[in-house]
Each structure stands twice: as structure tokens, then as C-alpha cells.
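Supplementary Methods. Inverse-folding protocol.

Structures were first reduced to a C-alpha cell string of length 301. This string, shown here, constituted the complete conditioning input.
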């Protein structure tokens, strides 16, 4: 099947293009970008033109930040193509609901790359029948290292520290069957920004989360869940699984996440199905609704 990528920025070049190059299901047939290209792939500067000139392209994968993504998604669906969305699937929940209502026969896949991390399926299986007593999520990274110059990430709709933090929530909501509730949140918002540079969440099941976007030195994407039947630890963003301190998965294979997303997208298209799970984004929206904000020092990327 033929697919087009829209937004040739950091994640498109780091992950989507290499994953598509190896995919047995997809041919990257076009790109749409104001600035970037992929060697050997037909390039368009405008999405409408690409959709009009390439009726043979089955699906479009949007690698734009959340705020500009909705208008592009509407164009794709109105053109009757299948739609794959980077995480988070939108800037608001209501716009994702709107996309679902206009999907018609198109597949919509709201992807969560961290759910494809190596240890997550085994963690989900191990959690079946176990009850979480307490948990700690530590997701601390350096925004300047991972998102250089991406001012959108600290603007309204960019989610700030929740941009990586939602990956942790996507894992938690995948491996814990019982719905999670947000009980409390503290958001640190720089005086010159709209989105938090740090957030601390209290969730049901005794789980606390610490999201921090100014971590220098070693970066941490870990979670530990203490259950009535042992302790589960996921490290490296879900790629390393330990049970009661003993390793279960092998070496971290971070490059496996995006190939798995495109394989899933191909399955969904073949089945005529969609997959849109908004549970991680509901928790983020609840943190913005319920959380207490404090203004912290101005921050520049
Ligand atoms: P990015 O490089 O800043 O932006 C991606 C592309 O979006 C840009 O190349 C640009 O497309 C377009 N774009 C940016 N701002 C725009 C605006 N205001 N209006 C219209 N188009 C705009 O972002 P990214 O890091 O790739 O992230 C994109 C999405 O992927 C985000 O939702 C992010 O959460 C997710 N993601 C990122 C990472 C990561 O490590 N960076 C990891 C996993 C998921 P053109 O210039 O090509 O037209």
C-alpha cells in the first residue's frame, strides 16, 4: 500500500522514514512539507495538491505537532484516505472525536509509540489478575536535547512536559486493566510559556508520576508498579522489563517501536478497522483541568 508523510521534521526523519523503508506493507510514495524532503520520494509543499495529484495513495501519516494537525486530518479524511496520527492524537479531545465522526470508511489509527516498546506486551500479560498497590513513574528528560528549537512544545496545545509524559501514561493505561483516575496534579509553568515544564501527578491505585523537562545528565523513562503478586519495573521507556528485580526482556531495541506502529496500521487498514484510544490524553486533560499551576522561572529553548 502507498502512504504519504506530512511534516518532514524531527520524528518523521528519525523514525517514520526508516520504519517505512523497511516495511513489508508500505511504500513511502510522497511527502508534504514546507521545508523537508526525503531522497527519491515525490515531494509536495501542499497537502491538497498531493491528495489531488496522487489518487493512488491509500493512507497519510501526519507527523505534525498537535495544534496544526486537525486541519490536515480533515483534508485527509475528506479525500477518503486512511489516517495515521502521531501521539498525542490531537490538541484537544473534542477534535479527535470530530475526526472519528467524519471517518466514514477510512481507518483512523491514533498511534502510541511507547505501547510498542519491547517490554510492554509482556508487562501487560504479567499484570493480568494482579492488583496495583502503589507505583512510581519517573519521566525526566532534557527538552533542549530532544526538542531543539521546538517552541510549539511549550505553547498552548504543545503539552510541555506531558509531551513525553503522555508516553508513560500510554503505557500505564495499556498494562493496567482497571481505569486510572487523576486525583491531583501540580503543574510548573514558566512565566514566559503556556505549557508546564514539570508536572507531578497523583493517580488512583497509589501511583505517582514525576514528569520533568529540564533533566540534565542521565535521562530517565522508568516506572515501577508494586502489585499483590510482585513488582514490575519498566525502564528505557518500556523497552526493558524486570519482574521482582530480574530481567525479563533482552537489550533495549528502541527502533522497533515505529516498525510495529506501521505494521499495526497495515493490519487495521486490511481489517477495515480503526483504533483510537484516548485514555492517555484524558488523564492529561484532567491534569490541566484539576491541577494547581505555579509560575516558575522563564525558560528558553
Ligand atoms: P517538529 O519537528 O517540530 O515538527 C514536525 C513538522 O511539523 C515540521 O517539520 C513542520 O513541517 C510541521 N510544523 C511544525 N510546526 C508547525 C506549525 N506551527 N504549523 C504547521 N506545520 C508545522 O516536531 P516533531 O518532533 O517531529 O514532533 C511531531 C509530533 O511527533 C509531535 O506530536 C510529537 O509529540 C511526536 N513525537 C515526537 C518525538 C520526538 O522525539 N521529537 C517522538 C515521538 C513522537 P514542515 O516544515 O515539514 O512543513
Amino acid at each position: 500500500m502507498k502512504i504519504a508523510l506530512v511534516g518532514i521534521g524531527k520524528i518523521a526523519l528519525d523514525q517514520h522514514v526508516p520504519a517505512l523503508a523497511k516495511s513489508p506493507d508500505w511504500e513511502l510514495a510522497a511527502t508534504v512539507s514546507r521545508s523537508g524532503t526525503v531522497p527519491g520520494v515525490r515531494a509536495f509543499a501542499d497537502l491538497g495538491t498531493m491528495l489531488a495529484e496522487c489518487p493512488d495513495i491509500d493512507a497519510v501519516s501526519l507527523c505534525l505537532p498537535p495544534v496544526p494537525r486537525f486541519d490536515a486530518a480533515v483534508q485527509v479524511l475528506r479525500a477518503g484516505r486512511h489516517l495515521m496520527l502521531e501521539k498525542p492524537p490531537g490538541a484537544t479531545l473534542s477534535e479527535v472525536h470530530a475526526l472519528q465522526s467524519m471517518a466514514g470508511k477510512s481507518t483512523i489509527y491514533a498511534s502510541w509509540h511507547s505501547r510498542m516498546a519491547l517490554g510492554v506486551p509482556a508487562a501487560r500479560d504479567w499484570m493480568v489478575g494482579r492488583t496495583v498497590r502503589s507505583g512510581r513513574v519517573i519521566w525526566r528528560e532534557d527538552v533542549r536535547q530532544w526538542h531543539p528549537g521546538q517552541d510549539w512544545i511549550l505553547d498552548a496545545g504543545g503539552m510541555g512536559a506531558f509531551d513525553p509524559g503522555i508516553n508513560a501514561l500510554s503505557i500505564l493505561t495499556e498494562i493496567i486493566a482497571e481505569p486510572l483516575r487523576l486525583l491531583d496534579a501540580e503543574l510548573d509553568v514558566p512565566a514566559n510559556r503556556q505549557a508546564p515544564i514539570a508536572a507531578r501527578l497523583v493517580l488512583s491505585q497509589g501511583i505517582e508520576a514525576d514528569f520533568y523537562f529540564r533533566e540534565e545528565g542521565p535521562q530517565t523513562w522508568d516506572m515501577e508498579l508494586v502489585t499483590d503478586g510482585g513488582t514490575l519495573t519498566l525502564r528505557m521507556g518500556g523497552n526493558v522489563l524486570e519482574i521482582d528485580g530480574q530481567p525479563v526482556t533482552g537489550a533495549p531495541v528502541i527502533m522497533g517501536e515505529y516498525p510495529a506502529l506501521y505494521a499495526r496500521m497495515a493490519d487495521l487498514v486490511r481489517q477495515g478497522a480503526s483504533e483510537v484510544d484516548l485514555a492517555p490524553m484524558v488523564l492529561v486533560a484532567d491534569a490541566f483541568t484539576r491541577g494547581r499551576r505555579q509560575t516558575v522561572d522563564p525558560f528558553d529553548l
